[in-house]
Amino acid sequence: MGRAVTVATCALNQWALDFEGNLERIFRSIDIAKSKGARYRLGPELEICGYGCSDHFYESDTLLHSFEVLGKLLESPATQDIICDVGMPVLHRNVRYNCRVIFLNKKILLIRPKISLANAGNYRELRWFTPWSKARHVEEYFLPRIIQEVTGQETVPFGDAVLATKDTCLGTEICEELWAPNSPHIEMGLDGVEIFTNSSGSHHVLRKAHTRVDLVNSATAKNGGIYILANQKGCDGDRLYYDGCAMISVNGETVAQGSQFSLDDVEVLVATLDLEDVRSYRAEISSRNLAASKVNPYPRVKVNFALSCPDDLAVPTCMPIQWRHHSPEEEISLGPACWLWDYLRRSKQAGFLLPLSGGIDSSATACIVYSMCHQVCLAVKNGNADVLADARRIVNDETYIPEEPREFCKRVLTTCYMASENSSQDTCNRAKLLAEQIGSYHINLNIDAAVKVVVGIFSVVTGRTPQFSVYGGSSRESLALQNVQARIRMVLAYLFAQLTLWARRMPGGLLVLGSANVDESLRGYLTKYDCSSADINPIGGISKTDLKSFIQYCIENFQLTALRSIMSAPPTAELEPLVDGQVAQTDEADMGMTYAELSIYGKLRKIGKAGPYSMFCKLINIWKEIFTPREVASKVKHFFRMYSVNRHKMTTLTPSYHAENYSPDDNRFDLRPFLYNTSWSWQFRCIDKQVN
């Protein structure tokens, strides 16, 4: 009697609508799984078309091409003698479902539609798909002719069923179903399912990985069983980075762990596991066995195939391991770096241009690019031919080998310090020193001539010349003059991104990187269409507090000593005139709040779902030792006034790496008006009543 089963799961860097590339990566994962003796292979959610197709799911082309790819998989000798579990959209009786298609030896065994759809935060699955609501019910699905010609089947089972092989029973979950309070694995486990599979499209959020790992392990801790999780990895076309972490767990303990961040497009985990471990574990859980005796059974699809061999007593099985989690600083160093690499190579650009101000935010962005260069060099050193080919294409040199991060950084990163008469020598020196230490191609320029021309045009037309407030001008004049500087920097950034390589007799263009953090965006402390307006922003979802910790991490791990003076300097926009050659303007004074306070406001507003009144009620307890109720009320009112006045800026926010669950990203994560009644009269009156 077979007891040792060998199974494979994977993390694939799929790309929305890249059917050819997606098929190639699926084939590679199957080849690796078979070469390591696996008899079952699990892939990520919607891996055939890519998870991030969004409204392309409405198109019949997406369904057609998905079936065409499925046909290629079914007819290939590479998929023989291994159960393949792939993800794609399927239209059943004119209803679109997010499905797993499970097949063996040119025969489709089962099409299993998703039961619980993800529809919170960045997820909008209910927009495109319908959940399968018929529990333990199976219908006939009429296959398209292109599939019938390969399989010889006219119909196949479609619905909520499990697979019964010669030696065990497998049940399917899809991503969100693991997170649901009534996860299918509970009832499936009671009905004798021993192997649970989960195909995910789960994206990275700082400090989230342990939650996913805990859910997988807890799924089998109470009920026993083997849990196999596959996940998408990489940037598949938008703001999210899917962070892999494929894993296999047995009876509540992890036995195989995939990487969370890597430049490998295909990563396959293979584990050999003892079914008797599951059976003996379940045998002594009397409460589980009593519940199992009353469970409503699942339809079983019989499969004339075994995941084990008859004579396998000598086959070694996998033992539990300790999961290693990255620190938040490591996550910031690795996640956005991998996202940038995917964006750079898939956009077919020649590198990045970063306006480097000498402050924490732009310096953190530079460090992330430098970390990306480290990852590229490490991947090439480890024999990753895909990364080497991409690097050679990016630098336009067929013989190039990236071996040293600083040297590679000089080829792919151009930094630019844009000085004005309001800039200090300190920030100029800090930017220059950091550029030298990371190796970027660095440019110094002065924007004063352009600023004077623009202001001069206004003066000629109106007959009036605006002045900074320190020279007697109004706050309106001063703010307008600051905004002119900021916007001219954006225009120059794009000019240099397009033509810097041309001027250096090199081909290609550069992607402009933004560097506004999540707290500044929330407060609206940025000029609309300034240097925060860029092609992409790797730190737009990261708080100032986390960025400071990341800068310290870079000092210690990359030996970037230039960051020490950057860390110790007060954050400043340097848009107002200097006083005795020194910066007089600071960010926190301008904002009327600290970055630490902003993080608290952001988490209460988005994660805590707090309006002005609820936020006040929470903060009078959180801050009872440091502020009076009246001071708390004043702070809350000031935040909501500034947030609502500036909310319109979020409609043009540069696409940013999603890293925090209190991101104000207006694209699809934080959906709110951008024209508010900024007096908040009713809400603030409720606060005042409580203060009194």
Verbal overview:
There is one protein chain. The chain is an alpha/beta fold. The chain has two domains: 4-302, Carbon-nitrogen hydrolase (Nitrilase/N-carbamoyl-D-aminoacid amidohydrolase, 4-Layer Sandwich); 328-591, 3-Layer(aba) Sandwich (Rossmann fold), CATH 3.40.50.620. Helices cover 41% and strands 17% of the residues. It has 24 helices and 20 strands. The strands form three sheets. Strands 1, 2, 3, 4, 5, 8, 9, 10, 11, 12, 13, 14, 15 and 16 form a 14-stranded mixed beta sheet that branches. Strand 3 and strand 4 (95-104) form a beta hairpin. Helix 10 (328-347) packs across helix 18 (544-557). It is globular, with a radius of gyration of 28 Å. The relative contact order is 0.09. Homohexamer. InterPro entries: C-N_Hydrolase, C-N_Hydrolase_sf, Gln-dep_NAD_synthase, NAD/GMP_synthase, NAD_synthase, Rossmann-like_a/b/a_fold. Residues 5-275 form the CN hydrolase domain.
